[in-house]
Amino acid sequence: MEMRMGSAQTGGHFPVQHRSLSLDIKGNKTDIVISKYEDNYLVIVTQIGCMGTILTAKKDESVFSDPTYNVSVLFGKRDEPLLLACARRLIEHISHSGSARPLVISLGLKDHSQGTLKDVISAIIENRLW
Length: 130
What we know:
The chain is α+β, with helices and mostly antiparallel strands.
């Protein structure tokens, strides 16, 4: 895993608690902003300098079965299963940490490989606000 940490900053509670960082993932400068709103988490990951595919993920609870995770694309590439897997992995981590907030994530990546997405997930979890 070739991941070099750049700068990381944590913002206060106004207007919203957030953390931002820049790092190198597989030779691409990657900017990540993690924000904690009252009703959800927003994660923006970009290697292209703008928003990318925007997904939403949430945990659906049922009295009769184990919880399920609903992930869907709001805008962008609908034919990228690894982007869906990334959002699913993060919402699973969020819910296992005890939070019920849903996730909105924007992934603007040059490289959609499994290795890049694993590094992105690791960086987000290391810097999580949940």
